Amino acid sequence: MKSPIYWHPKIYNYAMQILYSKNFFKKYELVAREIAALTVLDVCCGDCFLSKYIDHDKYQGIDVNQTFIKYGRRLGLNLSLIDVAKDEWPTAECIVILGSLYQFIPNHEEIISKAFRIARKRVIISEPIINLAQSKNNFIAGIARYLTSPGVDSSQERFNRSSLMTLYKKHGVAKVFDVGREMVGVFNVAD
Q1: pTM of the model
Q2: CB atoms near residue 123 (< 10 Å)
Q3: Which of 114, 158, 159, 190 sits at 20 to 30 Å (Cα–Cα) from 132?
Q4: Distance of alpha carbon 135 from alpha carbon 58, whole angstroms
Q5: Does 20 score more than 50 pLDDT?
Q6: DSSP-assigned beta bridge partners for residue 59
């Protein structure tokens, strides 16, 4: 069942700002700096908040949530309704996956491989490493898992600092940034 957080982009954005506090904006600023002037594909784009930091002519997003896609299109954004796990993605110089790779565990390597295959210059992944869904308090963990359910098959597993750093190193991470509850990895794609 889809969590209320995924009912509308404004609800989603408000919830993320509360959860990540001042680091919410810091992450987007950092990611935008790493994208620079590249064209970008925002995978699982959600509320498309990254588009506020990117030239709209260079931004495109994909997501499975029809409400989010319709909302973004009304804002004039180039968005496609795509099941990230099953469908092909458009190409771009930079592929960005922000806070959604965990949803594909244990098949997250397939998502990473697709990103590296499609990106022409860079891949940027940001994932939470502090997760309420992994709380030792079963009540809190249960609520957190419910609130992070996008309404399609998604994993109950999460990354921690160690598992995410191992994954980043495996794929040749060039830069790593700690941004509060998240860790951003920047990967250069060989030409």
Answers
A1: 0.82
A2: 23
A3: 114
A4: 39
A5: yes
A6: 40
Task: Report the pLDDT value the prediction gives residue 180, as an integer from 0 to 100.
Answer: 86
Residue 191 pLDDT:
56
Cβ neighbours for 9, distance < 8 A, ≥ 6 positions apart: 46, 47, 48, 67, 68, 71, 72
Q: What does residue 187 show for φ and ψ, rounded to 5 degrees?
A: -120, 130
Are the C-beta atoms of residues 150 and 7 closer than 8 Å to each other? no
Q: What is the pLDDT of residues 143-179, one digit of tens each?
A: 444 445 444 555 457 789 999 999 999 999 999 999 9
pLDDT digits (tens, 9 = 90+) for 34-85: 999 999 999 999 899 999 999 999 999 999 989 999 999 999 999 999 999 9
The Cα 70–Cα 182 span in angstroms is: 28
Identity at 88, one-letter amino acid code: E
To which H or E segment does residue 138 belong?
A: helix 138-147
Q: How far is CA 35 from CA 54, 119, 141, in A?
A: 8, 12, 34
Amino acid at 42: D
Q: Which residue type, as a one-letter code, is found at position 127?
A: E
CA angle 62, 77, 3 (to 5 degrees): 50
Rounded to whole angstroms, the Cα distance separating 37 from 20 reads 26
At residue 190, does pLDDT exceed 90? no
Using a 10 angstrom Cβ sphere, with 0-12 exposed, 13-18 middle and 19 or more buried, the burial of residue 66 is exposed
Rg (CA), the chain: 15
Apex CA 152: angle with CA 23 and CA 112, to 5°? Answer: 60
